[in-house]
Structures are given as C-alpha cells and as structure tokens.
Amino acid sequence: MRLAALRRAPLFLVPLLLVSAAACSSSDGAAPVVSASSGGGSGSDTNKSANKDANASGSESASIDCPSVKAAAAGFVLEVQFLAQLRTPAQYKLVKDGTVSFDAAKARKDIATLRALESVRVSSPIGGSLKDALDVYDHAAELAQANLAVDDPFTQAQGTELADLTKDTAGFLGHQVAIAMALDAAHC
Description:
This protein is mainly alpha-helical. It is built from 9 helices and 4 strands, in the order H-E-H-E-H-H-H-E-E-H-H-H-H. A hairpin with a 3-residue loop joins strand 3 (123-124) and strand 4. It is elongated, with a radius of gyration of 18 Å. Mean pLDDT is 74; it is low at 1-61.
C-alpha cells in the first residue's frame, strides 16, 4: 500500500508547488498584513498596493493576516493531499491506529483560517471560486472527521460519500488553484 502511494506522489507535487509558490511570493520578501477595504486607508506602501489590488478585484472590507493564512495554507496543502486518498477501510485504519498522522479537525481549522482570503475575489478556470473550493474541502474534512469517529469495523459503505467527492482526484485537487490565486492576489 505504501508503494502504491509513492507511485502517485508525483501527481500530487504539482498542486503543492503551486500553493507553495503563491504562499512564498512577495515583492519584498515580507509577509504583510493586508487590509482590503473599499476606502483609501493608510499604511505601508505594501499595504496600499495590496488594498488597491484587492479593491480592483471587488473585495469588501476585510483584514487578512498573511502570516496566519500562509501557515494555514502550508499545513492544508498536505492535508488536502491526504483527503484525496482517504477512500478505503484500510486507509482509515492506518489513521485510527496512528500509523498515518492526519487530523481532520486541524484541516477544518486551516480551512477556516483560509476563509479570510474570501474577501479577495478570484476565480480559477480549473478550481472555480475560492469559496466553492473551501466549501468542497471543508465538506471533505468534515466527512473524514465523521468517518474517523466511527467505531471499527469501518466499512467501505461508510466512506462512500467522501470517496465519491474525491474520486476525480485531479478535479478535487484542482480547487487548490483558487487558493493559490487568492494568496497571490492578497500579496501573502
């Protein structure tokens, strides 16, 4: 089973690189706190530039804590890879017995933090809107959390809804593009 997972690893590196590149991008290397508002606002040149870009994309009043959002994105990029593969009773067993480390509650917390980016309006031709992407990922993490709470023996039928949600692996992982675009648009 571990060998099969390793063979799929290169497929999952593409979204990881996309999100990592967006999370690390910044014109001056700093991690600014972006305040996207409909008014002019004051602050550093970095914040003013981010405000202008965020307003141009139609955002409403919000404050984005870039360091927190980047940390959540960095954690979630690994969590979403795991969600995409959590399909069989054997995989659930590996998590339940501690062989594989996965925390669905942490994934949901990271998604909640990433929702701060919803004030930056982006839409990906691959993954759709950021809100839709985060909704899909939150639903998947919610299902995984519920499935992991089921007493053994866990059956394939109990994991069907999550397996159906992630069966188009490329489509499921493609939602990460909207997250990367929002990170970039927010200058995080």
